[in-house]
Amino acid sequence: MTARRRPGRPPGAPRNIGWLYVLPALAVYGVFLLWPLVRGFWFSLYDWDGISTGTWAGLSNYATVLTDPGLRGAFGHALILVVFYAILPCLLAFLLVAVITRTRVRGLALFRTVLFLPQVVAMVAVAVAWQWMYSADGPVNGVLHLLHRLGLPDWSRGWLGDFTFALPAVGLIGTWVELGLALVLFLAGAQRIPGELYDAARIDGAGPFAEFRAVTLPGLRRELAVALTLTSVMALRNFDLVYVTTKGGPGGATRVPSYEVYNRTFNTGEVGLACAIGVTLAVLVFALTAGIGRLAEGRGEAR
Amino acid sequence: MTAPLISARERWLNYAVLLLFAALALVPMVGVVAQALNLPDLDVATFGRAWREGHFATYMRNSVIVTVTVVAVASVLSIMAGYALGTLGFRGAGAVFLLFLAGLTIPTEAIVVPLYFDLRSAGLDNTYAGMILPQTAQSLAFGTFWMRAYFRGVPPALLEAARMDGASSWTTLWRVLVPMGRPAILTMVVLTAMWTWNEFLLPLVVVNSAEDLRTAPLGLSFFQGSHQTDYPLLMAGALIIAAPVVVLYLFLQRRFIAGMLSGAVKE
Fold first, then answer.
1. What Rg, from alpha-carbon coordinates, does chain A have?
2. How far apart are the C-alpha atoms of B241 and B258, rounded to whole Å?
3. Which residues of chain B have a CB within 8 Å of the CB of A289?
4. 1.10.10.10, 3.10.105.10, 1.10.3720.10, 1.20.1560.10: which CATH number matches A55-302?
5. pTM of the predicted model as reported, rounded to 2 decimal places
6. Closest CA–CA distance from residue A153 to any residue of chain B (Å)
7. What ipTM score was computed for the predicted complex, to two decimals?
8. What is the pLDDT of residues B214-228, one digit of tens each?
C-alpha cells in the first residue's frame, strides 16, 4: 500500500479503527433492516400461506402484481394519491409563497407553525380526527348542509364509505398533512432569493404572475424536487391512514399497495405475494427518490 | 425583504388567501379539541374516561419505554458510526455510507412481513425487543447519515489539536466533538423520538396478541375499533397520544423542521 496521506488525517492515524466504531451500528442495521429486506425478496419467490411449506414460484408473484386487477387497482390508487399528497400541496404551497413574498405578512412564524403541525402528529391520530370530520354529522357535511340551505345542491354524503369519493377523501387528508411540508421548504428557499431580483422585476412593472414565473419559481427548483420526493414517498407509504379510516373499503375503492402488504399477509394468507408487493413498493420509492433528485440536479446544471 | 410595491387591493386579496388557508389548517385541530373538551361546556371528564377506558396509562408507558430505548441506543450507535464515516476515513467507508444511505428509502412495508415471521421464529414477537430492535435499525439510517454530515463539518485542525494533546479517537469523540455537536444531536434525538412514537405498522404486526404491550398509536386504533362513533371520546384519545410529540415540537420547532427537510437532500 502506498503511503499517500489524505488531507485532514494526521500522520499515523489509525485507519481501520473506524470499523470498530461502525460495527455495532452495522450489525443492528444489517440484522434488522437489510436482512429482512433480503428475506422479503426471498419470500416473494415462493407461494406461501405463512403456515404450511411454501412452494417455489419464481417470479410469478411479480407477474401477479402486474396483472391482478385488484393489485393493479391498488397501484393505480397510489398514483391518484400522489396527485393529492404531492402535486396538490406543491401547487397550493406555490400560491401561498407567491402571496407571502408579495406582502410583508405579520404572524408568518405562527402561520408556518400551524401549517407544519400535522407533520409531527401520529398519522393514526390524524386519521381518527378526519374520520370524525368526514362523519355523517361531522364538520365537512355541516358546511355542505349550510351551503345546501343557501341554495346549492346537497353535496353531503358519508365520504369515507362512498365508492366514488372515498379515495379523494383519503387523498385530501394527505393534502392537508403535506401542505405544511411543501410550504416550509418553499419559504426557506424563497428567503435565499436575493431581494434585488424582486426589486428589478417590480421596477420592470411585473405583475404578481410574471414576477412569480420569472423570479420565485426558478429559485425554488431544488426545493420543489425535495418536496415532490418526500410527499410522493408519503403517498406510497400511507398504511396508517388507510388502515384506520377505510381498511381499503368500500369494495376495494381505497386499496393501496401498503395496505395490501398487510392484507395479503394476515387476511388472505398470500405471504409470497405480499412480499412481492413490498419489494415492488421499495423499488418504486427508491426509483422515485433517485429519479426526482437526478432531475433536479440535471436541470440545475442546464441553467 | 424589500418594500413591496403592490396595490392595496392585491394586499387585501393576499391576506384573504392566507387567512383562508390558516382556517383550513386550523379547523380540524380546533374541532378535535372542541369535541374532546365538549365545548362550550368545557368538560375535561372525557379525557379521564378516555384515559381509563382506552388503557392509555399502559399504552403511553409502553411507548415511552420503546421510544426512550430506541432513541438512546440509536443515538449512541449513530454517533459512533457517523464519527467513523465522517472523520476516520477507513477503507470501505464509502461503501458502508452508501449502505446506510440506501436505508433511508426502505419503507417499513418492505420489511415488516419477513420481520414478523423471523421474529416469531426467534420468539421475539409480542416483546419489547421485537419492537425496539427493528426501529433502532431504521433510526440508524437517518442517524448515521445525519451525524456523518455533522462530523464532516468539524474543522480538521480541531481533530489535529486533540490528537496533539494526546487524546485518543474515543476521547476526542466523547469529550470534544459530542459536547460541541449538541444542536445536531438534539435534532437527531427529537426526530428519532417522533418517528418511533408515531410508528404504527411495525407494532401492529409485532404485537399481535399481547394487549398489554400495545404502544399509544396502536392503542388508539383499537380504541377506535371499540368506540366507533363516540367522537368526543375518540378525539380525547387522539389528543392524548399526539400530545407528547406536539409539545416537543412547539418547544423545538426549528430542530424538527431542519431535520425533516434534510431527509431527501443529498450532499
1. 24
2. 24
3. 104-105, 264
4. 1.10.3720.10
5. 0.91
6. 22
7. 0.92
8. 999 999 999 998 888
